[in-house]
Protein backbone atom coordinates (compact mmCIF):
# COMPACT_ATOMS: atom_id res chain seq x y z
CA UNK A 1 0.00 0.00 0.00
CA UNK A 2 1.59 3.24 -1.09
CA UNK A 3 1.13 6.12 1.30
CA UNK A 4 2.24 9.69 0.66
CA UNK A 5 4.09 11.16 3.62
CA UNK A 6 3.06 14.77 4.13
CA UNK A 7 4.16 17.34 6.65
CA UNK A 8 1.71 19.50 8.59
CA UNK A 9 2.71 23.08 9.26
CA UNK A 10 0.67 25.24 11.65
CA UNK A 11 1.57 28.89 12.09
CA UNK A 12 0.20 31.47 14.51
CA UNK A 13 -3.04 29.50 14.91
CA UNK A 14 -5.92 31.03 16.83
CA UNK A 15 -9.23 29.35 17.63
CA UNK A 16 -12.05 31.09 19.44
CA UNK A 17 -15.36 29.46 20.33
CA UNK A 18 -17.86 32.14 21.31
CA UNK A 19 -16.08 34.44 23.73
CA UNK A 20 -13.59 31.74 24.76
CA UNK A 21 -10.13 31.78 23.18
CA UNK A 22 -9.18 28.09 23.08
CA UNK A 23 -5.89 28.38 21.20
CA UNK A 24 -3.77 31.48 20.71
CA UNK A 25 -0.64 32.00 18.57
CA UNK A 26 0.17 28.28 18.31
CA UNK A 27 3.00 27.06 16.04
CA UNK A 28 3.58 23.39 15.27
CA UNK A 29 5.62 21.51 12.67
CA UNK A 30 4.79 17.84 12.08
CA UNK A 31 7.44 16.11 10.00
CA UNK A 32 6.57 13.70 7.16
CA UNK A 33 6.17 10.16 8.45
CA UNK A 34 6.33 10.95 12.15
CA UNK A 35 3.92 9.84 14.85
CA UNK A 36 3.18 13.00 16.82
CA UNK A 37 1.11 12.69 19.99
CA UNK A 38 -0.78 15.66 21.45
CA UNK A 39 -0.89 15.00 25.18
CA UNK A 40 -2.63 16.94 27.92
CA UNK A 41 -5.48 17.02 30.43
CA UNK A 42 -9.12 17.41 29.43
CA UNK A 43 -9.90 20.90 28.15
CA UNK A 44 -6.32 21.75 27.15
CA UNK A 45 -7.23 22.23 23.45
CA UNK A 46 -5.64 19.09 21.96
CA UNK A 47 -8.84 17.77 20.30
CA UNK A 48 -9.72 21.29 19.15
CA UNK A 49 -6.31 21.52 17.49
CA UNK A 50 -6.78 18.12 15.81
CA UNK A 51 -10.26 19.05 14.57
CA UNK A 52 -8.92 22.29 13.09
CA UNK A 53 -6.35 20.27 11.11
CA UNK A 54 -9.21 18.07 9.90
CA UNK A 55 -11.27 21.11 8.90
CA UNK A 56 -14.09 20.38 11.35
CA UNK A 57 -13.51 23.66 13.23
CA UNK A 58 -13.00 27.05 11.61
CA UNK A 59 -9.92 28.90 12.80
CA UNK A 60 -9.96 32.53 13.92
CA UNK A 61 -6.49 33.26 12.62
CA UNK A 62 -3.26 31.72 11.37
CA UNK A 63 -2.67 29.05 8.74
CA UNK A 64 -2.66 25.27 8.32
CA UNK A 65 -0.58 23.67 5.57
CA UNK A 66 -0.69 19.98 4.67
CA UNK A 67 1.92 18.69 2.26
CA UNK A 68 2.98 22.25 1.44
CA UNK A 69 -0.56 23.27 0.42
CA UNK A 70 -2.56 25.90 2.31
CA UNK A 71 -5.56 24.02 3.71
CA UNK A 72 -6.72 26.61 6.24
CA UNK A 73 -10.13 26.99 4.61
CA UNK A 74 -10.29 23.82 2.51
CA UNK A 75 -13.17 21.37 2.91
CA UNK A 76 -12.33 18.30 5.02
CA UNK A 77 -12.69 16.02 1.97
CA UNK A 78 -10.01 17.99 0.12
CA UNK A 79 -7.36 17.89 2.84
CA UNK A 80 -5.99 14.40 2.21
CA UNK A 81 -6.65 13.35 5.79
CA UNK A 82 -8.30 10.36 7.45
CA UNK A 83 -9.82 10.76 10.91
CA UNK A 84 -10.51 8.11 13.56
CA UNK A 85 -12.81 9.21 16.38
CA UNK A 86 -13.18 8.04 19.96
CA UNK A 87 -16.54 6.51 19.04
CA UNK A 88 -16.48 3.79 16.39
CA UNK A 89 -19.26 5.40 14.28
CA UNK A 90 -19.82 2.25 12.23
CA UNK A 91 -22.92 1.66 10.12
CA UNK A 92 -24.87 -0.98 12.10
CA UNK A 93 -26.70 -2.45 9.09
CA UNK A 94 -23.51 -2.98 7.06
CA UNK A 95 -21.01 -5.78 7.56
CA UNK A 96 -17.32 -5.07 8.15
CA UNK A 97 -16.43 -5.28 4.47
CA UNK A 98 -19.06 -2.72 3.47
CA UNK A 99 -18.16 -0.45 6.39
CA UNK A 100 -14.56 -0.47 5.17
CA UNK A 101 -15.48 0.22 1.57
CA UNK A 102 -18.36 2.67 2.06
CA UNK A 103 -16.37 5.89 1.58
CA UNK A 104 -14.60 4.49 -1.48
CA UNK A 105 -17.89 3.41 -3.06
CA UNK A 106 -19.42 6.86 -2.48
CA UNK A 107 -16.34 8.43 -4.09
CA UNK A 108 -16.77 6.23 -7.20
CA UNK A 109 -13.52 4.30 -6.74
CA UNK A 110 -13.20 1.40 -9.22
CA UNK A 111 -14.34 -1.94 -7.83
CA UNK A 112 -10.96 -3.64 -8.28
CA UNK A 113 -9.22 -0.81 -6.41
CA UNK A 114 -11.76 -1.02 -3.57
CA UNK A 115 -11.15 -4.74 -3.26
CA UNK A 116 -7.38 -4.24 -3.19
CA UNK A 117 -7.53 -1.60 -0.47
CA UNK A 118 -10.04 -3.45 1.70
CA UNK A 119 -8.07 -6.71 1.43
CA UNK A 120 -4.84 -4.94 2.37
CA UNK A 121 -6.41 -3.14 5.36
CA UNK A 122 -8.05 -6.35 6.54
CA UNK A 123 -4.67 -8.15 6.43
CA UNK A 124 -2.96 -5.35 8.39
CA UNK A 125 -5.60 -5.31 11.13
CA UNK A 126 -6.41 -9.04 11.20
CA UNK A 127 -10.00 -8.41 10.08
CA UNK A 128 -10.15 -11.11 7.40
CA UNK A 129 -12.32 -13.58 9.38
CA UNK A 130 -14.66 -10.74 10.41
CA UNK A 131 -15.49 -9.21 7.04
CA UNK A 132 -19.02 -10.67 6.87
CA UNK A 133 -19.96 -9.77 10.46
CA UNK A 134 -21.97 -6.73 11.47
CA UNK A 135 -20.76 -4.32 14.20
CA UNK A 136 -23.14 -5.81 16.80
CA UNK A 137 -21.29 -9.13 16.41
CA UNK A 138 -17.88 -7.56 17.18
CA UNK A 139 -16.05 -6.77 20.42
CA UNK A 140 -15.05 -3.20 21.24
CA UNK A 141 -11.49 -3.79 20.10
CA UNK A 142 -12.65 -5.32 16.82
CA UNK A 143 -14.96 -2.37 16.17
CA UNK A 144 -12.14 0.08 16.74
CA UNK A 145 -9.93 -1.88 14.34
CA UNK A 146 -12.68 -1.56 11.73
CA UNK A 147 -12.80 2.19 12.33
CA UNK A 148 -9.02 2.37 11.88
CA UNK A 149 -9.28 0.19 8.77
CA UNK A 150 -11.86 2.56 7.30
CA UNK A 151 -9.27 5.31 7.63
CA UNK A 152 -6.47 3.17 6.15
CA UNK A 153 -8.37 2.35 2.95
CA UNK A 154 -8.44 6.05 2.12
CA UNK A 155 -4.63 5.95 1.71
CA UNK A 156 -4.55 9.46 3.13
CA UNK A 157 -1.58 11.81 3.40
CA UNK A 158 -2.15 12.34 7.13
CA UNK A 159 -3.94 10.16 9.70
CA UNK A 160 -5.62 11.85 12.66
CA UNK A 161 -6.62 9.91 15.79
CA UNK A 162 -8.88 11.50 18.41
CA UNK A 163 -8.49 9.38 21.58
CA UNK A 164 -9.38 6.18 19.68
CA UNK A 165 -8.61 3.80 22.56
CA UNK A 166 -10.25 5.58 25.49
CA UNK A 167 -13.47 3.50 25.31
CA UNK A 168 -11.60 0.20 25.58
CA UNK A 169 -10.60 -1.77 28.66
CA UNK A 170 -6.97 -1.85 29.78
CA UNK A 171 -6.06 -5.13 28.05
CA UNK A 172 -7.56 -4.09 24.71
CA UNK A 173 -5.87 -0.68 24.93
CA UNK A 174 -2.52 -2.39 25.34
CA UNK A 175 -3.16 -4.70 22.37
CA UNK A 176 -4.39 -1.96 20.04
CA UNK A 177 -1.56 0.34 21.11
CA UNK A 178 0.87 -2.31 19.91
CA UNK A 179 -1.06 -2.73 16.67
CA UNK A 180 -1.05 1.02 16.02
CA UNK A 181 2.70 1.12 16.54
CA UNK A 182 3.16 -1.71 14.04
CA UNK A 183 0.72 -0.06 11.65
CA UNK A 184 2.72 3.16 11.64
CA UNK A 185 5.88 1.18 10.98
CA UNK A 186 4.28 -0.60 8.01
CA UNK A 187 2.57 2.45 6.50
CA UNK A 188 5.28 5.01 7.26
CA UNK A 189 2.47 7.59 7.22
CA UNK A 190 2.24 10.89 9.06
CA UNK A 191 0.07 10.39 12.13
CA UNK A 192 -1.21 12.85 14.73
CA UNK A 193 -2.73 11.28 17.82
CA UNK A 194 -4.64 12.93 20.68
CA UNK A 195 -4.71 11.42 24.16
CA UNK A 196 -4.75 12.30 27.86
CA UNK A 197 -3.11 8.94 28.63
CA UNK A 198 0.62 9.39 29.21
CA UNK A 199 1.32 5.68 28.68
CA UNK A 200 -0.17 5.88 25.17
CA UNK A 201 1.89 8.99 24.48
CA UNK A 202 5.16 7.55 25.76
CA UNK A 203 4.79 4.24 23.90
CA UNK A 204 3.41 5.49 20.57
CA UNK A 205 5.07 8.82 19.87
CA UNK A 206 8.16 9.54 17.87
CA UNK A 207 7.61 13.04 19.29
CA UNK A 208 5.07 14.33 21.77
CA UNK A 209 3.65 17.80 22.39
CA UNK A 210 2.42 18.39 25.95
CA UNK A 211 -0.41 20.94 26.04
CA UNK A 212 -2.00 23.03 28.76
CA UNK A 213 -4.54 25.82 28.37
CA UNK A 214 -4.23 25.85 24.58
CA UNK A 215 -0.45 26.27 24.73
CA UNK A 216 2.23 23.72 23.85
CA UNK A 217 4.37 23.47 26.98
CA UNK A 218 7.04 21.23 25.49
CA UNK A 219 7.68 19.17 22.38
CA UNK A 220 10.29 16.46 21.94
CA UNK A 221 10.86 12.72 22.00
CA UNK A 222 9.21 10.92 24.92
CA UNK A 223 12.63 10.29 26.48
CA UNK A 224 13.61 13.96 26.23
CA UNK A 225 10.35 15.26 27.70
CA UNK A 226 10.38 12.71 30.52
CA UNK A 227 14.00 13.25 31.53
CA UNK A 228 14.18 17.03 31.00
CA UNK A 229 10.74 18.60 31.55
CA UNK A 230 10.53 22.28 30.64
CA UNK A 231 8.44 23.26 33.65
CA UNK A 232 6.71 21.98 36.76
CA UNK A 233 3.49 21.18 34.88
CA UNK A 234 5.25 18.80 32.48
CA UNK A 235 7.32 17.36 35.33
CA UNK A 236 4.26 16.40 37.37
CA UNK A 237 1.95 15.47 34.47
CA UNK A 238 4.33 12.83 33.08
CA UNK A 239 5.25 9.77 35.07
CA UNK A 240 3.37 7.43 37.37
CA UNK A 241 3.93 8.43 40.09
CA UNK A 242 4.84 11.93 39.00
CA UNK A 243 8.12 13.64 39.74
CA UNK A 244 8.91 14.22 43.43
CA UNK A 245 9.30 17.91 44.30
CA UNK A 246 11.25 19.53 47.13
CA UNK A 247 11.52 23.26 47.82
CA UNK A 248 14.87 24.73 48.80
CA UNK A 249 17.67 27.00 47.64
CA UNK A 250 20.95 26.72 45.71
CA UNK A 251 24.26 27.37 47.45
CA UNK A 252 27.68 27.81 45.86
CA UNK A 253 30.36 25.96 47.75
CA UNK A 254 33.98 25.21 46.87
CA UNK A 255 33.42 25.56 43.13
CA UNK A 256 30.31 23.41 43.24
CA UNK A 257 26.58 23.91 43.76
CA UNK A 258 24.40 22.29 46.40
CA UNK A 259 20.64 22.18 46.88
CA UNK A 260 19.60 22.62 50.49
CA UNK A 261 16.59 23.00 52.66
CA UNK A 262 16.26 22.43 56.38
CA UNK A 263 16.28 18.67 55.88
CA UNK A 264 18.28 17.75 52.73
CA UNK A 265 21.65 18.63 51.28
CA UNK A 266 22.27 17.38 47.71
CA UNK A 267 25.25 18.01 45.42
CA UNK A 268 23.84 19.33 42.09
CA UNK A 269 27.14 20.53 40.60
CA UNK A 270 26.63 18.21 37.59
CA UNK A 271 23.34 19.95 36.70
CA UNK A 272 23.70 21.77 33.32
CA UNK A 273 23.10 25.33 34.52
CA UNK A 274 22.78 27.85 31.68
CA UNK A 275 24.44 30.40 33.93
CA UNK A 276 25.84 30.44 37.44
CA UNK A 277 22.90 30.60 39.85
CA UNK A 278 22.74 33.45 42.39
CA UNK A 279 23.65 32.51 45.94
CA UNK A 280 20.65 31.15 47.88
CA UNK A 281 18.43 31.22 44.78
CA UNK A 282 15.03 29.71 45.75
CA UNK A 283 14.11 26.76 43.54
CA UNK A 284 12.26 23.46 43.37
CA UNK A 285 14.20 20.23 42.98
CA UNK A 286 12.47 17.47 41.04
CA UNK A 287 13.53 13.84 41.00
CA UNK A 288 11.87 10.86 39.35
CA UNK A 289 10.85 8.00 41.70
CA UNK A 290 13.31 5.62 40.00
CA UNK A 291 16.16 7.97 41.03
CA UNK A 292 15.26 7.76 44.73
CA UNK A 293 17.10 4.84 46.32
CA UNK A 294 16.06 3.21 49.60
CA UNK A 295 18.44 1.57 52.05
CA UNK A 296 18.49 1.63 55.86
CA UNK A 297 22.14 2.71 55.65
CA UNK A 298 21.40 6.01 53.81
CA UNK A 299 21.54 9.16 55.93
CA UNK A 300 18.25 10.85 54.97
CA UNK A 301 15.68 9.21 57.24
CA UNK A 302 11.97 8.82 56.45
CA UNK A 303 8.99 6.72 57.48
CA UNK A 304 7.44 4.28 55.00
CA UNK A 305 3.81 5.40 54.68
CA UNK A 306 2.59 3.11 51.86
CA UNK A 307 3.85 0.22 49.74
CA UNK A 308 2.20 -0.44 46.35
CA UNK A 309 3.12 -3.83 44.79
CA UNK A 310 3.34 -3.58 40.98
CA UNK A 311 4.49 -7.06 40.04
CA UNK A 312 8.15 -6.72 39.08
CA UNK A 313 8.60 -3.59 41.22
CA UNK A 314 7.05 -1.69 44.09
CA UNK A 315 6.24 1.95 44.66
CA UNK A 316 7.36 2.86 48.16
CA UNK A 317 5.98 6.10 49.59
CA UNK A 318 8.05 7.87 52.22
CA UNK A 319 6.82 10.46 54.70
CA UNK A 320 9.72 12.87 54.94
CA UNK A 321 8.97 15.71 57.36
CA UNK A 322 5.43 15.93 55.96
CA UNK A 323 6.45 15.62 52.29
CA UNK A 324 5.44 12.48 50.38
CA UNK A 325 8.32 11.05 48.33
CA UNK A 326 7.81 8.12 45.96
CA UNK A 327 10.52 5.59 45.18
CA UNK A 328 10.35 2.83 42.59
CA UNK A 329 12.16 -0.18 43.97
CA UNK A 330 12.75 -3.74 42.84
CA UNK A 331 10.62 -6.31 44.60
CA UNK A 332 13.68 -7.47 46.55
CA UNK A 333 13.87 -4.14 48.41
CA UNK A 334 12.87 -4.42 52.04
CA UNK A 335 10.43 -1.83 53.36
CA UNK A 336 7.47 -2.18 55.69
CA UNK A 337 4.74 0.36 56.42
CA UNK A 338 5.49 2.56 59.48
CA UNK A 339 9.12 1.45 59.40
CA UNK A 340 11.92 4.02 59.47
CA UNK A 341 14.38 3.70 56.59
CA UNK A 342 17.00 5.69 54.73
CA UNK A 343 16.95 7.14 51.20
CA UNK A 344 19.21 9.01 48.81
CA UNK A 345 18.64 11.15 45.73
CA UNK A 346 20.88 10.92 42.67
CA UNK A 347 22.05 14.52 42.24
CA UNK A 348 23.13 13.84 38.66
CA UNK A 349 19.56 13.03 37.59
CA UNK A 350 17.55 15.85 39.15
CA UNK A 351 15.63 18.70 37.53
CA UNK A 352 15.67 22.22 38.98
CA UNK A 353 12.88 24.74 38.48
CA UNK A 354 12.36 28.39 39.26
CA UNK A 355 10.19 28.51 42.37
CA UNK A 356 8.02 31.40 41.13
CA UNK A 357 7.64 30.87 37.36
CA UNK A 358 7.97 27.08 37.45
CA UNK A 359 10.33 27.04 34.45
CA UNK A 360 13.36 24.77 34.24
CA UNK A 361 16.57 26.44 35.36
UniProtKB/TrEMBL annotation:
One of its GO terms (cellular component) is ATP-binding cassette (ABC) transporter complex, substrate-binding subunit-containing. GO terms for biological process: carbohydrate transport. CDD domains: ABC_MalK_N. PROSITE patterns: ABC_TRANSPORTER_1, ABC_TRANSPORTER_2. One of its GO terms (molecular function) is ATP binding. It comes from the Bacteria. InterPro entries: AAA+_ATPase, ABC_transporter-like_ATP-bd, ABC_transporter-like_CS, ABC_transpr_MalK-like, ABC_transpr_MalK/UgpC-like, Mo/tungstate-bd_C_term_dom, NA-bd_OB-fold, OB_MalK-like. Pfam families: ABC_tran, OB_MalK. Residues 8-238 form the ABC transporter domain. Keywords: ATP-binding, Cell inner membrane, Cell membrane, Membrane, Nucleotide-binding, Transport. This is Glycerol-3-phosphate ABC transporter, ATP-binding protein UgpC.
Amino acid sequence: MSTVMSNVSIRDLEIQLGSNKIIESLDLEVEPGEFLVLLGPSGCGKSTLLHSIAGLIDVSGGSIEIGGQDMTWADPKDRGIALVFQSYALYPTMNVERNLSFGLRIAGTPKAEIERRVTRAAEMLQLGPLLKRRPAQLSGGQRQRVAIGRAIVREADVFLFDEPLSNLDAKLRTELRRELKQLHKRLGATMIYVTHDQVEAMTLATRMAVMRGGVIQQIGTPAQVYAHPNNLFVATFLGSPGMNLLKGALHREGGGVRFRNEHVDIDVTAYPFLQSPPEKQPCVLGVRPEDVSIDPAFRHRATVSLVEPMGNHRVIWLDYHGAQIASIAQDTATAAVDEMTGFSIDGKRVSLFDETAGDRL
